[in-house]
Amino acid sequence: MQDGGTSPSIAAQALTARGYTLPSLVQSLRTGVTPNGDVFGGSMAEVVHGSTKFLLTDHLEDMATYLLDLNAL
Ligand code: HEM
User: Fold this and answer.
1) Which residues does ligand 1 sit against, CB inside 6 Å?
2) Helix, strand, coil: what percent of the chain each, to 5?
């Protein structure tokens, strides 16, 4: 990472294990707040505040559906 931070796995299994569901992942991409009440740090905070918070719910749901699809790839 440019800022020296680390980025956790966002594989479907890893996201599910960290408590993400379709609605909570949509909520996190919109607000930057994770299901356990933490906030995205580093460059992911910029991604939310400069990009994903502006997306339509339909689009966020499509992204979350893809990210949580255990059969993807
Ligand atoms: C639309 C594109 C993106 C999506 C859908 C996405 C999705 C996610 C998700 C779901 C997480 C949460 C993982 C977790 O903590 O449980 C995450 C974390 C993270 N992402 Fe992204 N990401 C995107 C773009 C990016 C980009 C472009 C960068 C870097 C330039 C980035 C850097 C990070 C970092 C550093 C974290 C860890 C944040 C933290 O631990 O506080 N992401 N991302």
Assistant:
1) 1, 5, 7-8, 10, 18, 34, 40-44, 47, 52, 63
2) 55, 5, 45
The answer to whether 53 and 60 have CB atoms below 8 angstroms apart is no
- pLDDT at residue 72 in the model: 76
Does residue 73 surpass a pLDDT of 70? no
Q: How many domains does the chain have?
A: 1
Per DSSP, which regions of 1-73 are E strands?
A: none
Ligand 1 pocket: which of 18, 31, 47, 69 to mutate (most atoms within 8 A of CB): 47
Range of the domain at 35: 12-67
Tokens 């440019």 correspond to what residue?
2
